[in-house]
Amino acid sequence: MSAATQKEGGEPLLRVSGLGKMFGGLRALKEIDLAVWPGEVVGLVGDNGAGKSTLVRCIAGVYTPDEGEVAVGGVAMGHGGPKHAAELGIEVVHQDLSLVIHGDVAQNLYLNREIRSRIPGLKQIGWLDKAAMRAGARAILDQVGMGGTVSVRQRVSDLSGGQRQCVAIGRAIGWSRRIVFLDEPTAALGVRQTRHVLDLIMRLQNQGIAVVLISHNMEQVLEVCDRVVVLRLGRKVADEAVAALDGPTLVGYVTGLRRAEA
Amino acid sequence: MMTDHPVTTTDRPPAEQTTGLTDRHAFRWTDITVYLGFVLVFGFFALTLHDKGFLSAQNATSIVSQVTPIALMAFGAVFVLTAGEIDLSIGSVVAMSALFTALGLRHFGLPAGIAFGLLTGVGAGLLNGLLIVGLRVPSFLITLGTMQLFSGIAQMSTQLQDVPIVNGTYTTLFGSGTVGPLSDAVVWLVIGFIVAQIAYRNLAFGWRVMATGSSGASARALGVNTRRVRISVMMISSCTAALAGMLYAGEVQGAVYTLGSSDLLTVLAGVVIGGTSLFGGQGSIPGALLGSILMAMIVNGLVLMGATVQQQIVVQGLIIVAAVAVSQRQPAE
How far does A148 lie from chain B, in Å, by closest CA? Predict the structure, then answer.
């Protein structure tokens, strides 16, 4: 039984219906339905090539789906691209982190959302208020537990893998209003930083923000998620509450040894 | 807001853990090459040529008026290279804009002459940008083609004939006027530098240019319109070349299709010596200015030393190799 239908009433924050995506002759996604409610943490799991990242990119407006549609808060997304998706409240930490490596931390946190000078005339030509952005960036770094270890003026190319991950998460969390997608957020992190990210996810949940966590770490998924959606070969093969799942069952869905009862 | 910088990073990774080409260490030779080179070359000429007038105000003026068109194009090239593109067509745009300006002045008067020159820059840059983005072909190849195209158009426009400029107002505004003891080229240089530096460092546009050239896919994922950025930088580049052509034409009071034909390499050398990466993502407007002045100073010093043109070229080549060996060195494989 789909866990989604067990959720008490109301319109979901995110509704994906009948979504399909082709790459040349390759069918990457087929007939994907997905709903996410406010304050929910949903795990999205599946083997390599199952279509997890493609699904996230379709939802985030990076890819245009060939079939189906994505609606946020009842508003169909159309083909507005990443900026439109962000305006609707979707934030994504992509697996590749989408950082600008020559830029410093503050530039990365504020790219394409720059704070402009409030002085008339300067504002119109896009004059930057760098001081305000550095202050905001410092607050975001504190929020992701990096305050004091990384300067907002440091270039991303000078940061370690874990620090880069934290900057990317900070960017999503610093801006998220409704729903955050985290694509393998802890893959490059040490034990302490991983703990920190998982705590962050819980904190977002308490603020009523939905989180979709993509992870290969089943233990982690079962720990922090309320519900798990399993993709296999581009199709959704399971969508169940974590309470009804255990590790072996989940692995069975991922590998295709087990199928959800229709 | 310079006080937040000193931060200890306890878990800074060894260099090989950070990705690819872009390793940065605390001390960057790139950042100071041009200043070092400038001081060394200036010191050398000042010592050896002080009795031949290298340090005279007149010589300084001469260097500045030579350097202005080159430096303006160098500012444009900083934007183009930072965005991860290159513009090989600037030399041809110089000739085209000079000739079109001269023709406009002759047939329609001052406003038309200036408009023809500027529109040449806008049009050429728009064409380059649209071809690069529309055909999805690297800018190196597109501008290799348009370099020829524009050069051919320039030559056809007057059947290889010179076009003299007799409009005194024009020549006073562009290249032949004076401001106190200095050529009006200084004014163009100062304005160009300030505008370029502000756009590069203080406007949202500059950030987007950097992001486009540094990590285009990331920039797009964050909603930056990288196509528009790439078209814009090509237009900036062409417009600086058009302005350079107009200054040349004003200075020599006429236009000929050979104007600008040797400028491309000088401009790129100055920009690259100034610390702008050929691979996108980083650049420096002050560096480009100093790099351009350095190139002009070398020529000037060699002329005062009595070097032949051939010797000048050899020395220039050696200095470019030495400078890029320091500033553009890649990490070991």
Answer: 7
Distance between CA B38 and CA B44 in Å, rounded?
10
* Domain boundaries of chain B, sorted by first residue: 29-325
Total-model pTM = 0.82
Instruction: Tell me which H or E stretch contains A69.
Output: strand A67-72
Query: Which ipTM did the prediction report?
Result: 0.79
H helices of chain A, in order, are 52-59, 81-87, 105-110, 130-143, 161-175, 191-206, 218-224, 247-255
DSSP A120-161: TTTTTTTBB-HHHHHHHHHHHHHHTT-TTTS-TTSBGGGS-H
Residue A81 in contact with partner chain B when CB distance is under 8 A: yes
- Please, which residues 10-29 of chain B have a Cβ atom closer than 8 Å to chain A? 10-13, 17-19, 22-24
B183/B187 Cα distance (integer angstroms): 8
For chains A and B, CB pairs below 8 A equal 114
**pLDDT (tens digit, 0 to 9) for every residue of chain B, 333 residues total?**
344 444 334 343 433 333 333 333 456 666 777 888 889 889 999 999 888 888 888 888 888 888 999 999 999 999 999 999 999 999 999 999 999 999 999 999 999 999 999 999 999 999 999 999 999 999 999 999 999 999 999 999 999 999 999 999 999 999 888 877 777 888 999 999 999 999 999 999 999 999 999 999 999 988 899 999 999 999 999 999 999 999 999 999 999 999 999 899 899 999 988 889 888 999 999 999 999 999 999 889 998 999 898 998 898 888 878 877 876 777 676
List the CATH code of the domain at A1-89+178-262. 3.40.50.300
The topology under which CATH files domain B29-325 is: ABC transporter involved in vitamin B12 uptake, BtuC (1.10.3470)
Q: Does B219 touch chain A (CB under 8 A)?
A: yes
Q: For residue A83, give the chain B residue with the closest CA.
A: B223
Domain boundaries, chain A: 1-89+178-262, 101-175
Residue A46 contacts residue A59 (beta carbons within 8 Å): no
